[in-house]
Amino acid sequence: MAEQKFAENEVVELVTKIVTSIGTTRGDLIPILQKVTNELGYISQEAIQQISVLLKLPTKEITSVATFYRMLSTKPHGRHIVQFCESAPCHIAGGREVLSALKEALQLEPGETSADNKWTFYTTSCLGICGVGPVILIDTEIHGNVTPDQIPSILGRYE
Ligand code: FES
Fold this sequence. Notes:
The chain is α+β, with helices and mostly antiparallel strands and 159 residues long. The protein is built from 6 helices and 4 strands.
């Protein structure tokens, strides 16, 4: 995820480029928002404003889509996104203890980003790999069969 700050004119330029490459219909909105999240790190107010102009959609509608999906964000994320599965199969496999250890190690509650901007932490529902629960997803990397004592070394692999 990008973390640098962009000037307003750079955001306008970037969003215009993204919209030009994807399209201007309502159906193009989610792919556009995904791409903006990837490029900017999050969907800023300037980005929403520019998408609104180009797609001729109210900013309120864009904001409501941007805040609905977990993969989109209107707030800056940390450099790494940690997602912990809290559905029943992972829970039964020892998830509760792993969640406590993870919160302790990150010093974060779900939905929070660390002060050094390294981590954003979420809990999530089933990731579809229940056979290797408890499961932690860090960015796009899956960690399965996690035990509480493995947490420091797993987190230690990330810059
Ligand atoms: S319940 Fe955790 S991956 Fe399915």
